[in-house]
Amino acid sequence: PCFLKDWELHVHFRIHGAGKKNLHGDGLALWYTQERLVPGPVFGSKDNFHGLAIFLDTYPNDEATERVFPYISAMVNNGSLTYDHSKDGRWTELAGCTADLRNQNHDTFLAIRYSRGRLTVMTDVEDKNEWKNCIDIAGVQLPTGYFFGASAGTGDLSDNHDIISMKLFQLMVEHPLEDETVDWTKIEPSVSLLKSPKDNVDDPTGNFRSGPLTGWKVFLLLLCALLGIIVCAVVGAVVFQKRQERNKRFY
Q1: How far is CA 187 from CA 21, 142, 205, in A?
Q2: Which residues pair with residue 98 across a beta bridge?
Q3: Which residues cross the membrane (predicted)?
Q4: What is the DSSP letter of 198?
Q5: What is the per-residue pLDDT for 155?
Q6: Does residue 134 form part of some domain?
Q7: 69, 96, 175, 215: least surrounded by Cβ within 10 Å?
């Protein structure tokens, strides 16, 4: 078990196979969970887990999706959520991004950083030797004492999922004094979101955007636009008046 409050995990991996286009699957998962690995239906591990999962999904099960695969996503679970394979976990996904990580001829890496309630996932899959931001979420609560692990799953289609190395680093971060009284092993895995992941809809870029505008949102947008027009008109009038006064002085 890991008893670090702040950590960063670097994973050197490779996903490869002979399948072309979408004729491969299913993907790789990286875990930080309460239990050691238990075989199950979620990329080879159990569902309704406690903790954090990062999914490297290579196969689109939802034919209506606009996302580009392979797709990396994050999920935090307190045991009450079920991963929906038919929708590629969209209802429980916190954030995600597209990453061209399959069948690369160079090394591919993933970094997961957790520090002071902030979860960051970065990739290095373009052979540039630099991290590229994929996921950045604040308000994440993860306890200490959980286990790191990895699993993969295949169905009628298959792929090779190789874990070459996993390296864990401790981050030296200052915490508020009140954190010293917290029993970090008793924290419930959770995320403080401004909106539910279910409010998210697909974006062709692979990211999330908010759902359709409701009536009050439209009202606020119109109100802001009206205020902006009024401010511009007032500023324009003042500028025009000053120019007029300046021209009078020249005469």
Answers
A1: 42, 7, 34
A2: 71
A3: 218-240
A4: G
A5: 83
A6: yes
A7: 215
Q: What is the pLDDT of residues 86-114, one digit of tens each?
A: 999 999 999 999 999 999 999 999 999 99
To the nearest 10°, the Cα dihedral for 35, 39, 45, 46?
A: -70
Q: Tokens 């052979």 sit at which residue?
A: 127
List the CATH number of the domain containing 134. 2.60.120.200
Residue 134: name the closest of 59, 92, 83, 74 by CA: 74
Based on the domain organization, do 125 and 226 belong to the same domain? Answer: no
134 DSSP 8-state letter: E
Question: E strands, 88-183, where?
Answer: 95-98, 108-115, 118-124, 132-137, 140-141, 147-153, 160-170
In degrees rounded to 5, what are phi and psi of residue 146?
Answer: -90, 170
Q: What is the pTM of this model?
A: 0.77
Residue 30, strand partner residues: 54, 150
Euclidean distance between CA atoms 158 and 88, whole angstroms? 17
| Range of lowest pLDDT (4-8, 78-82, 163-167, 215-219) | 215-219
Please state, in angstroms and as integers, the Cα–Cα distance from residue 46 to each residue in 2, 34, 40, 130, 206, following that order: 20, 12, 4, 33, 26
Nearest Cα residue to 149 out of 52, 79, 223: 52
Task: Reply yes or no on whether the pLDDT at 197 is more than 80.
Answer: no
pLDDT band with cut points at 50, 70 and 90 for residue 116: very high
Residues 12, 183: Cα–Cα separation, whole Å = 32
Q: Is residue 2 a part of any domain in this protein?
A: no
Total number of domains constituting the chain: 2
Domain coverage including residue 240: 213-246
3-state secondary structure labels for all residues of 20-56: CCCCCCCEEEEEEECCCCCEEEECCECCCCEEEEEEE
| Model pLDDT, residue 66 | 84
Mean pLDDT of the chain: 87
